[in-house]
């Protein structure tokens, strides 16, 4: 059977160039102006096409796929406001370094701003948050003007190559004139030989790094979001076994070691209330800061390192370096494994009490976290403690913004899990869609942990035919935006509950019925501990467990946790340790 193409050459070349550049998955939203692309994509043997009605959900669905594949995934929409609904996902891809390819159909230029329906000014619409915009020309159906097809070919190829090699979003805007639905079984053009636009590898001069390493008795390694790089065991051992190094990670760092500090705020938050706050932070202040991975969740580590700056800050990443702490010394444009493979032979261990003294504090926070959990009632904090007790080995977990990911960073998983969160822009708008896109791409057991506002905001994410049977949602419903009770502000003002916390009486039962998700509910810790093991064992249908926690207690318990640690742990021992060590030397 012959392959079916749109009769419009530009639609043909966009699809063929996507295939040549390795794109295998395309998410299409229904429309008329994008019919030439839809006809060609839906009938292409090398394309897996998905239909998602809501363009905002479609963008995040594709984003989840890029997280799984670490390769470009395309979204295709019609003209007009449909395109603008991609913007949240595009901006998330921009700040998370994910190769999302947004392809929009457009009206021809002579129909823009003349009162024609479903038209806006689409070229360069994402200009502030895009790596490349390819604004194609209309080919007017089988045009003999080869220069138009040559231009469109080069622009499309450049956009796709940019997404691949620079790891970020690109936009291809293609104007199509009517008729839109004509088909053919023959390609109307031949794609010329196209060059790879892979950038040249940058030269690495690590002499300053090596000198700092070998002279710094306090080295802090801070790891942000790490989706795709598996760090070599030799590198982890190098960082873990050095007495002058503290490694701080977050759950989305996706690396683990028994000596790594995984609960950053449990150490920093109590110090903020200590009498000797400045002296304690000076004791923790690194001489040398080494960062890799993407963005950091913890506001407290940002505040600490901005105030107590290291002498040197080195960032290792093949693509970019954010000067988050306003003291960046050097960016090494290479992978972590490659960097340390070359530098390792020149790096020496030096005597230091940096890790030993602070690790004693870290171990105490783990011990007293359990004691605190036993003293409190059922709240968000107690739930997250139980969650990390019950998570299966190797589970993939997506954490929604904003409270979900912050709570998760207070706990250590005793099991190896893969953790994701949309921390590029940290919005709540696409957490569910992203998790579902990832689950569809991986077909692995995947769980979304989400709050109520994030879940209800993105409930259209459930409106598709692709949700795998082993996809699960844990919905923590505290009847509002609990994060705003944790943040500074007067919670007793009349407008607070309505305009900040946005309290509600919604539940997810009817949504689950409509979208055919198995529904379970829990109201206390006993029910949570009973239901979660059963919840994780069932894989015969997508399911959601809704857990109701007390709206007015959660913030008190969380903030009380940091005060509890301060009262029970001798943070001053770090200063005593340093004094004793100095005297003995």
UniProtKB/TrEMBL annotation:
Enzyme superclass (EC): transferase
* Gene3D superfamilies assigned to the protein according to its UniProt record, in alphabetical order: 3.40.50.970, TPP-binding domain (3.40.50.1220)
Record's cofactor remark: Binds 1 thiamine pyrophosphate per subunit.
Q: Which UniProt keywords apply?
A: Magnesium, Manganese, Menaquinone biosynthesis, Metal-binding, Thiamine pyrophosphate, Transferase
Cofactor(s) the protein needs: Mg(2+); Mn(2+); thiamine diphosphate
Q: Where is the Thiamine pyrophosphate enzyme N-terminal TPP-binding domain?
A: 10-114
Question: Residue limits of the Thiamine pyrophosphate enzyme TPP-binding domain?
Answer: 408-547
Q: In which pathway does it act?
A: Quinol/quinone metabolism; 1,4-dihydroxy-2-naphthoate biosynthesis; 1,4-dihydroxy-2-naphthoate from chorismate: step 2/7; Quinol/quinone metabolism; menaquinone biosynthesis
- Under Enzyme Commission nomenclature, its number is 2.2.1.9
A GO molecular function for this record?
A: 2-succinyl-5-enolpyruvyl-6-hydroxy-3-cyclohexene-1-carboxylic-acid synthase activity
Task: Provide the catalytic activity annotation.
Answer: isochorismate + 2-oxoglutarate + H(+) = 5-enolpyruvoyl-6-hydroxy-2-succinyl-cyclohex-3-ene-1-carboxylate + CO2
Task: State the oligomer form and interacting partners.
Answer: Homodimer.
Q: What does this protein do?
A: Catalyzes the thiamine diphosphate-dependent decarboxylation of 2-oxoglutarate and the subsequent addition of the resulting succinic semialdehyde-thiamine pyrophosphate anion to isochorismate to yield 2-succinyl-5-enolpyruvyl-6-hydroxy-3-cyclohexene-1-carboxylate (SEPHCHC).
Q: Which PANTHER family match?
A: 2-SUCCINYL-5-ENOLPYRUVYL-6-HYDROXY-3-CYCLOHEXENE-1-CARBOXYLATE SYNTHASE, PROTEIN PHYLLO, CHLOROPLASTIC
Sequence similarity = Belongs to the TPP enzyme family. MenD subfamily.
The record's section on HAMAP family has: MenD (MF_01659)
Record's protein name: 2-succinyl-5-enolpyruvyl-6-hydroxy-3-cyclohexene-1-carboxylate synthase
């Amino acid at each position: 059977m012959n392959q079916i193409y749109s009769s419009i050459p530009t639609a043909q070349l966009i699809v063929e160039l996507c295939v040549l550049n390795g794109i295998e998955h395309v998410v299409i939203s229904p429309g008329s102006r994008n019919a030439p692309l839809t006809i060609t994509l839906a009938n292409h043997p090398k394309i897996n096409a998905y239909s998602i009605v809501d363009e905002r959900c479609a963008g995040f669905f594709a984003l989840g796929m890029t997280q799984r594949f670490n390769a470009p995934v395309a979204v295709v929409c019609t003209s007009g406001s449909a395109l603008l609904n991609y913007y949240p996902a595009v901006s998330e891809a921009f700040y998370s370094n994910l190769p999302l390819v947004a392809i929009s159909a457009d009206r021809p230029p002579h129909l823009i701003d003349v009162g024609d329906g479903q038209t806006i000014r689409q070229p360069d619409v994402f200009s502030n948050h895009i790596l490349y915009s390819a604004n194609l020309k209309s080919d007017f159906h089988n045009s003999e003007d080869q220069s138009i097809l040559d231009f469109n070919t080069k622009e499309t190829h450049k956009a796709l190559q940019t997404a691949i090699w620079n790891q970020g979003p690109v936009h291809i805007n293609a104007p199509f004139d009517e008729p839109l639905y004509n088909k053919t079984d023959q390609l109307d053009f031949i794609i010329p030989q196209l060059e790879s636009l892979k950038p040249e590898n940058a030269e690495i001069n690590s002499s300053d790094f090596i000198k700092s390493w070998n002279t710094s008795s306090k080295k802090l390694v801070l790891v942000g979001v790490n989706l795709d790089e598996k760090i070599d065991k030799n590198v982890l051992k190098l960082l873990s076994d050095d007495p002058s190094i503290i490694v701080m990670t977050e759950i989305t760092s996706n690396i683990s070691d028994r000596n790594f500090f995984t609960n950053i705020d449990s150490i920093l938050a109590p110090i903020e209330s200590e009498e000797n706050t400045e002296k304690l932070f000076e004791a923790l202040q690194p001489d040398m800061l080494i960062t890799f991975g993407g963005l950091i969740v913890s506001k407290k580590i940002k505040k600490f390192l901005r105030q107590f700056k290291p002498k040197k800050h080195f960032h290792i990443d093949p693509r970019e370096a954010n000067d988050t702490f306003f003291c960046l010394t050097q960016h090494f444009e290479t992978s972590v494994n490659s960097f340390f493979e070359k530098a390792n032979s020149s790096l020496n261990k030096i005597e230091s009490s940096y890790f030993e003294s602070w690790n004693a504090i870290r171990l105490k926070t783990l011990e007293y976290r359990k004691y605190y959990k036993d003293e409190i009632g059922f709240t968000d904090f107690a739930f997250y403690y139980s969650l990390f007790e019950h998570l299966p080995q190797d589970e993939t977990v997506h954490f929604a913004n904003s409270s979900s990911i912050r709570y998760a960073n207070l706990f250590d998983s005793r099991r190896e899990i893969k953790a994701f969160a949309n921390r590029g822009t940290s919005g709540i708008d696409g957490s569910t869609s992203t998790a579902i896109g990832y689950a569809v791409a991986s077909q692995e057991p995947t769980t979304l942990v989400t709050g109520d506002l994030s879940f209800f905001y993105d409930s259209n994410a459930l409106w598709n035919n692709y949700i795998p049977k082993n996809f699960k949602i844990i919905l923590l419903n505290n009847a509002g935006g609990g994060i705003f009770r944790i943040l500074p502000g007067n919670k007793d003002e009349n407008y607070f509950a309505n305009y900040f916390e946005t309290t509600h009486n919604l539940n997810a039962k009817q949504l689950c019925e409509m979208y055919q998700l198995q529904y379970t509910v829990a109201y206390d810790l006993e029910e949570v501990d009973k239901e979660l093991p059963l919840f994780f064992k069932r894989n015969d249908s997508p399911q959601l467990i809704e857990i109701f926690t007390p709206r007015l207690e959660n913030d008190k318990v969380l903030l009380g946790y940091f005060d509890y640690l301060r009262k029970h742990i001798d943070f001053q021992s770090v200063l005593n340790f340093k004094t004793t060590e100095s005297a003995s030397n």
